[in-house]
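Re: the request from the purification team.
They wanted to know what the chain is likely to look like in 3D before they choose a buffer screen. I agreed to run a prediction and write the result into the notebook, where they can find it.
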Amino acid sequence: MISNITSLYSMKNVSASYLDLPTSSAARSTNTSSSQPQNSSTSTDRSVNVTISDEALRRLGLAQKEKTEQPNLTGQTSDELTTDELNEVKELKARDKQVHDHERAHMMAGGSLVRKGASYQYTTGPDGQRYAVAGEVSIDTSEVKDNPSATISKMQQVKRSALAPTNPSSQDRAVAASAAQKDAQARQEVRQQSSA
């Protein structure tokens, strides 16, 4: 689900590749390397090592607990669960994936308008693990003051973000409808300015 806000802090220089990074007591590292084409006698390899601390992830709202780090609260292993409990765990895992995919789609389409990482509501399954059952992404839906052309572009991005998931929620559709209305008003202002 996407929520609209008008005045929260802005996250800059955070790419979608950092979404849903697991955290633990130690900082995580992401390695990427790229190779440039070989010249006749030399080749150049560049490697970048990026480390993001748990505290930085928490402040950016991107921290997510690894399910493997969750304590087994019931003390049951998958071998000790009943068939009904195993089916419930299977459903919870599918829902968890669906929720994370949904919010990730909002964040990737929202780009710079996203004000903080997704927040999730969790439930504990019969296996003692936590599973996301709902989520929300905050996005800036305010109009650009005294600039209807910029408002049009912004509202188009808001609509794309709101409708990005495969199955937008009713809240997502409401945000998209509100953005469409602001877009139409901004277009009318542009027409009035050009005819004056």
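For the purification team: The longest strand covers residues 130-140.
Please add any questions underneath this entry.
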